[in-house]
Amino acid sequence: MRGIVVSPEIVMSGKNSMSVNGGTIAPIKLRQYLLYWDQIDFPTSNIITFGGTADTDFLESTGALKRSRVNLQMAGEFTNLFLKSQMEAFRLNNEKEVGSWSLAQPHYNLVLDEVSGIMSRNIEVELYQSLPVPEKDVPLVDILEFKEKRKDELLEFRSLIDNLYLDIVNSGDQERDKLKSLELLARKTKEIDRLMEESFMSRLAQSLKIEFDWKDMAAKTGTTVLGSFTGQYTFETGLAVGLLSSINVSSEMSLKPRSLPPELKDYAYLYYSQKEFK
């Protein structure tokens, strides 16, 4: 299981100054979280509460999203209280399911204190944020159904991301190792895009074929031969017309995907998600 604590889109303009855009999770971010994580926590507190939307309400009804209640002391600046609510939600979730939770805000620079587990876990969030995401109008139920159908591929891909994450946090040069991992994911994403394009063109070329309906052609040419004796057509013209009218050009697009090369097997979840939602 993998879970992520999220917040509305915020902009930090100073140590104790922030603004909130919209007051809820951006639709495209919500779909990103849903595609790669098993559960989303959009917490509330006794001091700060953000409203939900039809999307968050739907996901809450399915169990894919929850809204943890965090109790805070009234003292402190609003910005600090907001950040504390996020960190407390992360702490509570991580206590119940150790190592399974991450914390993200809808920008790359987390404005959080250096709390053990949070900042290192944000490296994992950065890796996932570099990946392709569905468009904001993709139905949430389609993503849920896709994840259920491709759960084995998701587990394999998640194992790959876990290994990249562990390599980074155990590295003597985390920034360099993180950059290398992000470049690897970008390169593999491009390879998948290229494979999809090549696969589409190959299927298109191979599936366009000319089919002769010999029974229909015989009937039509026989009719036109008779017509040639009554002066409607010449024999050659009648045969040609009957022949052409009996040719069917069909496009049979196979749904079977081209096999992934060995170096992309661990990225099958990305491949199928691109096919499904791109």
Chart the SSEs and their pairings.
Layout: E1 3-5, E2 9-14, E3 17-21, H1 27-36, E4 39-41, E5 44-45, H2 54-62, E6 65-66, E7 69-70, H3 78-96, E8 101-103, H4 118-129, H5 140-149, H6 151-169, H7 174-207, E9 208-212, H8 214-229, H9 235-245, E10 247-251, H10 268-277
Parallel strand pairs: 1-4, 1-8, 4-6, 5-7
Antiparallel strand pairs: 2-3, 9-10
InterPro entries: DUF6236
Report on this model:
The protein has helices spanning 27-36, 54-62, 78-96, 118-129, 140-149, 151-169, 174-207, 214-229, 235-245, 268-277, and strands at 3-5, 9-14, 17-21, 39-41, 44-45, 65-66, 69-70, 101-103, 208-212, 247-251. The chain is α/β, with parallel strands linked by helices and 278 residues long. Among the domains are: 1-134, no CATH class; 209-251, no CATH class. It has a 4-stranded parallel beta sheet. The chain has a two-stranded antiparallel sheet with strand order 2-3. It has a two-stranded parallel sheet with strand order 5-7. Strand 2 (9-14) and strand 3 form a beta hairpin. Helix 7 crosses helix 10 and helix 8 (214-229) runs antiparallel to helix 9 (235-245). The radius of gyration is 28 Å and the shape is globular. Residues 200-214 and 223-257 have low confidence and may be disordered. It holds the Pfam family DUF6236.
